[in-house]
Structures are given as structure tokens and as C-alpha cells.
Amino acid sequence: MIVKSTLPIGTIIHALRHSLGFFFAVSAVACAIHHHYPWEPNFQVSLTVIGLALSIFLGNRIRISYDRWWEGRKLWGRMINRSRIITRQFLNFIEGSVDDKEAIQELHERLVLRHIAYVHVFRVAMRKQSIPDDEDCKKYLTEEELDQLSRESNPCNALVQMQGDDLQRAAQKGWINEHRLQQIDLSLVELLDVQGGCERILKTVIPTNLTYFPTRLVFLYGIILSIGLVKALGWWTIPTVLVVGFIFRIIDLAGKLIENPFSTFHYGLPLYAISRTIEANLCDRIGHEARPVPKQVDGILM
């Protein structure tokens, strides 16, 4: 995710070079034809109405994309908070006699480290990457767990089930009472709610009519604008159409860049930095050495 306050305008112009080339070409052709074969366009008022309608259409497009992006950020914010809460519950709610101290400490560590693995596996799943190829996943999962996850249709859900199984065995040994077990179960439910919300965003695409038509309509408006302004502006039609077309294409492009909040592109959410933040917070609680949280590089946080 880009976190610096400025954007590289040169990079943006380069990304839109084909669009700007199209606007330059149609406006130049309109000017050249009008220079040799003048006409009297009489739909300047219509241009304003069409431009207003197009701006509303594009505004709706970017609003839908931003709603998806912002909801994804809120869900991962809940993941951070719930990870801290459930770790405290693991460490404070599970207790036993002095003879069980070593076994309970081992259980504490296993539950917390598996939750760290859950967060990394969740990140990998949201970005459609491979769990065995991710070093962070392999760091906190045993070979047996990796093998089991490879056979699961939803590895994140399988990890939550493993947590529940360990908690159930702890309850059978008397290390955790029923009320506290219910409290931890509510935290596990919260994790699955967050996971389900993110999966809904990932698997529900924006309707095609909201992604296909805006770009085509911007180009069509560039043609109509060139024809409608050439009588009044002459050769100044070219820079006018370039500026107007650039503005509309920027709005259209902004919607496309943020419609998938979990992508690895610069405008996606910094899931790696978030998951590493959770990892560092949880490692501190069990006395493990925490790796430093990634910092932004050239104004970009992954």
C-alpha cells in the first residue's frame, strides 16, 4: 500500500499513455477535419449533461471499490484486536496444578504459535498464494500440520478446528472451566466471522456492467467532446480534450486499482505488515524473540 502523501505523476501519465494518445488523436483529427470542412455543432449543452451523467457513473464506480477496500481494512483491524485478545485468553484462562505447569506452558506456546500461523495462512489465502512456498507459514507450522493443510479445502478453517480440539482436551483435563472455554470459543467465532467477511469480498466481483462500460464511455465522450468543442475552441480543443479525458480516466483507474483490497499491488492493503505486527505482538507475550515489523520502502508498505 502506498503510504506517502504524494503520487508519482510521471508514472500515472505513463500508465495512461495509451488513453492520452487516443484523446490526442481524436481531437487532432476533429480539428483537422473542421479546419478543411467546417461544421456548426449545436449540442454544446448536451455535452454538459453527458459529462455530468458520466461523472456520476464513475463516482459510483469508485465508491463501490472504496467500500470494498475500506471494509477489508476494518476486517483486518478486527483481526489484530482479536488476535491480542485471544492470546491473553490462552495465557490467562488455561491453568492447572504445579505438576501440570510444564504441560500447560507447552500448550500456551502451541496455541499462540498456531494462531500466528493462522494469520499468515489467512494472508496467503487472501492473496491466492501457496502456503508451502511461504516462509512465514512454514516457520510456525509443523510438518504434520502442513501435510494436513495441503488436503484441506479451507486451511484457515482447519487451523481454527485444531485450536478448538486442543482447547477441548484441555477442558477434559480440568485446565479450563466451561465459562472460560465459552469465552475463548467466542473469540474463535469472531476470527471465523472476519475470515468469512474477507472471503466474501474476495469472491464477490464487482458487476461487469460497472467495470466494462465506464472506460468505454470515457473514450466515447472524448470523441463527442472533440466534435462538440472544435467550433468554439479550434485547435485549443486538443489540450482541452486531453485534460478532460485525463481527469475521467484517473477516476476510472482509481476504482480499478482498489477493487481488490487484498492484492499485492501497491494499492492493496499491507497484509504482510499487518500479519507481521500480529506476530511480533504475540511473540512478546510468550517470550519469543519477535522479528522487526517491516517498514515502508520508497513510500510503499506491503
Largest sheet: none
Order of helices and strands: HHHHHHHHHHH
Number of strands: 0
Taken from the alpha-carbon principal axes, the silhouette is elongated
**Contiguous helical run count:** 11
Radius of gyration: 27 Å
- Model regions low in confidence, pLDDT < 50 over at least 5 residues: none
The helix-and-strand class reads mainly alpha
Proportion of strand residues: under 5%
**CA distance, first residue to last residue:** 6 Å
Average pLDDT score? 88
Estimate percent helicity.
over 70%
Short structural summary:
74% of the residues lie in helices and 0% in strands.
Structure characterization notes:
This protein is mainly α and 302 residues long. Helices cover 74% and strands 0% of the residues. It contains 11 helices and no strands. Helix 2 runs antiparallel to helix 10 (237-258), helix 3 (44-93) packs antiparallel against helix 8 and helix 4 (101-126) packs antiparallel against helix 11 (271-285). It is elongated, with a radius of gyration of 27 Å. The N and C termini lie close together (6 Å). The mean pLDDT is 88.
